Amino acid sequence: MNIAGNETKRLIQTVVAFFTLLCVGTLGFKMFSEGESPWMDCLYMTVITLTTIGYEEVIDVSHHPFGRAFTMFIAISGIGMLTYMLSLLTAFVVEGHLKKNLVQKKIVRMIARMENHFIVCGYGRVGGTIIEDLDALGHEVVLIDPNEECVENFLNKGRTVLIGDGADDAILEKAGLMRAAGLFAVTGDDHENLVITLSARLLNPNLRIVARCEDNSNLKKMKRAGATMVASPAYIGGIRMTNEMVKPVLTSFVDQLFSGQGEAERVSSITVGSFESSLSVSDLELRNFPSTLLLAIQRHGEKELTYNPPRDTVLQEGDVLIFMTHKDEVQILNRRLNGSELSSI
């Protein structure tokens, strides 16, 4: 719902009605003067009547049986219309519609300075959870949602929000799609997520896109539209509930590893940078990191993981190392890997 657009439409309609009444009044006074009064005098009489200023009447309507009734009609109509038009202007300016437009322009300027941020299309239960998790991990987030009422509280907290359709190319470009690290298409409608995914993929062929899918029959469509990964909240929720019942200790362990809070160990990934000489797992000297365990390596350009890699495994630029580690130790490992990019899963 576009509140600002509705207010603007009503304001335009009221202005048109006011000028129509102005024309009717001018023609009426011309008729009551039997065509003898100049048009400017007729317009003058209409204006002072509509605005209830009450200056000297330049057209005498006392001799006409309906002249004063017509004048009272113009006066009463003018008062009501001017009052309504003033209230619309007050609502448009004071209640924040103009302010929202200024805020959106400020947000666009903020986004222009962002890089490697994440775009979330859809502020619902899933989108809200994603934003909270990304925020806990220290990532910048841009939210896109067409419903002003749903994101009003989010906007009041100083978050980065764009009011609009996530499938709109112009909105995606304003959100910095070409500089983003990834996009989440997580509205409650599979078709909307499908169009958002397709639009984002056409604009940025290399972007990582995670799409929400409620109907399993749409999984292949999402993939064909360009989604890097498709997630079903219902399926994931069901698996989680089963594990909570059957394997509660394991669930608690996994939650601790992947949580973004506290000082406990968690799972993190480091992308290997470039080296002048060869570097192996043994060169990392992981024995000096008591809270760190190397879980797996994903070779550059491959999807499969190599779990518990041998110490003599030679690392290559672009390889991703997955650790269970403490946040302080992972920072040291990141620097040791030649300043490579650090990211948390």
Distance, first to last CA: 36 Å
Side-by-side strand order of the widest sheet: 3-2-1-4-5-6
Average per-residue pLDDT, rounded, comes to 81
Number of domains: 3
Please name the fourth-level CATH homologous superfamily of the largest domain: NAD(P)-binding Rossmann-like Domain
CATH topology-level name of the largest domain? Rossmann fold
Give the key terms.
5-stranded antiparallel sheet; about 350 residues; 12 helices; 3 domains; Helix Hairpins; Alpha-Beta Plaits; Rossmann fold; about 50% helix; alpha/beta
Write the SSE topology:
Elements: H1 3-32, H2 39-50, H3 67-93, H4 97-111, E1 118-121, H5 125-136, E2 141-145, H6 148-156, E3 161-163, H7 169-174, E4 182-185, H8 190-203, E5 208-212, H9 219-225, E6 229-231, H10 233-246, H11 248-258, E7 266-271, E8 279-280, E9 293-298, E10 305-307, E11 314-315, E12 320-325, H12 327-336, E13 342-344
Parallel strand pairs: 1-2, 1-4, 2-3, 4-5, 5-6
Antiparallel strand pairs: 7-12, 7-13, 8-11, 9-10, 9-12
Helix pairs in contact: 1-2, 1-3, 10-11
